[in-house]
Design brief:
By secondary structure, the chain is α/β, with parallel strands linked by helices. Helix content is 37%, strand content 18%. The strands form 3 sheets. An 8-stranded mixed sheet has the order 4-3-2-5-1-6-7-8, with helices on both faces. A 6-stranded mixed sheet has the order 12-13-17-14-15-16. Strands 9-10-11 form a 3-stranded antiparallel sheet. A hairpin with a 2-residue loop joins strand 3 (91-93) and strand 4.
Length: 424
């Protein structure tokens, strides 16, 4: 596609344009985006980089890294996807979203540099983040992998430490139909001599094997670093770093101890490491925020919002719900994209669900509530709502004191719920 006239336009116009430049929404090749990054003189990166990959836990781990670096007085940027409400959420510096004007400037710079090279929407995102980080003079960049690892655009940047949070079933059409194949793809973010943090002690063996073949320094949970919690306090140990009686992470759920520990292990394993101070770590753990990750909204009816959108995430959500019993009924409001294993998600959540409310998602991969209902026998008695806003209103009308409402299944499910509840 020829170069587009880069005259000033709105952020919405630029984002619409980026959806059309490449013929496919996903293109797992690195040559195009690397070529444009090199023209922009973004490689090698002029800041220290931590990459975060994995099936689930990436967003939480990035949030911990952001909070920890900020608490230690280090200027850091973070790149994540997708966003909940505003595109600007994807690119943050010192915990604050990038502004429209700096994003427009970045897009204009990319457009002038790419020439005839086509870029996907995600590749524009990454290049814009790197430009913003360079312009802001960050010392660290935290880069979240979008899909897989080896062939994800983020992997054009060499990381001093890379974390694989978990390996589970998702994106089988792109990554492979075995956990071993998926693990090998995610392990592609590791680099020779750099730290390879395996944040799940049960991780499939091929991830560690791939790290060793690449010559990375493997740092494995509950072997090379350890964490254990005792009520509302927990301990972390990694090499010469010993942090005892830390406060529990502000993010809810048992899995958050592992995510926080993985972030700490990465910072300990850098060369040179980030010197971790107890007070700064404690402050970061208390302050970390991440909408839509087991986000609890208390009240006479408790609401819980979680972007869980695959079987492993649904299993974690079900575990967290079971550990947080309520007196009344649990209404689950959900919208799930058609390329997910919908029956597996429903099977995990069925034991903690009193009643389902199935909602349509008006997106290319979305389903009508009727189509969603046909994807699992667990939905046989479900109520149907045209969209998430309607589903939230239906749940409000049904729930009584002591009940709870869980909204889950996708970022595209949680975002409308946040708006409908007046939380964003």
């Amino acid at each position: 596609m020829p170069t587009v006239n880069a005259s000033p336009r709105s952020l919405e116009d630029w984002l619409a344009l980026q959806q059309t430049v490449h013929s496919s929404g996903i293109d797992l090749t690195l040559e195009r985006v690397r070529a444009v990054a090199q023209r922009l003189k973004l490689l090698p990166a002029p800041f220290r980089v931590v990459t975060v990959a994995g099936t689930n836990g990436k967003g939480s781990t990035v949030a911990y890294l952001e909070a920890l670096l900020k608490a230690h007085g280090l200027h850091a940027g973070a790149f994540t996807s997708p966003h909940l409400i505003r595109y600007n959420e994807r690119i943050r510096v010192a915990g604050q979203m990038a502004g429209d004007e700096e994003l427009l400037a970045a897009f204009q710079t990319i457009e002038a540099a790419r020439g005839e090279v086509t870029l996907t929407f995600f590749e524009y995102n990454l290049l814009a983040a790197l430009l913003v980080f360079r312009a802001r003079g960050v010392a660290f960049a935290i880069l979240e992998v979008g899909l897989g690892g080896r062939l994800d655009a983020v992997n054009i940047v060499d990381a001093e430490a890379a974390i694989v949070c978990s390996i589970g079933w998702d994106h089988r059409d792109w990554l492979g139909d075995t956990l071993e194949a998926i693990g090998r793809e995610k392990a592609g973010v590791f680099r020779t001599g750099s730290a390879a943090v395996l944040a799940d002690p049960r991780m499939v063996g091929v991830v560690e094997q791939a790290a060793q073949r690449l010559g990375a320094r493997v740092v494995k949970a509950q072997r090379d670093y350890s964490f254990a919690h005792h009520g509302s306090r927990w301990d972390f140990n990694c090499g010469e770093v010993h942090l005892a009686k830390l406060p529990a992470p502000a993010l809810e759920g048992e899995v958050q101890f592992a995510n926080a520990a993985g972030a700490l292990a990465a910072l300990c394993s850098l060369a040179p490491p980030v010197p971790l101070a107890f007070k700064a770590v404690a402050s970061a753990l208390r302050s970390v925020q991440l909408p839509g990750r087991f986000q609890v909204i208390p009240g006479q009816v408790e609401w819980i919002l979680d972007v869980a959108h695959n079987e492993p995430a649904a299993q974690v959500l079900a575990h967290n719900l079971a550990a947080r019993p309520v007196k009344g009924r649990t209404y689950v409001v959900t919208g799930i994209l058609g390329d997910k294993d919908i029956d597996a998600i429903a099977r995990q959540l069925q034991p903690v669900t009193s009643e389902w409310i199935l909602c349509g998602i008006d997106e290319p991969r979305g389903l009508t509530p009727q189509e969603l209902a046909r994807r699992s026998p667990h939905f046989a008695a479900a109520r149907l709502a045209s969209d998430l806003a309607a589903g939230v209103e239906l749940a409000k009308s049904l729930a009584r004191r002591g009940d709870r409402v869980v909204v889950c299944g996708s970022f595209l499910a949680v975002a409308p719920a946040l708006k409908a509840l007046g939380l964003y």
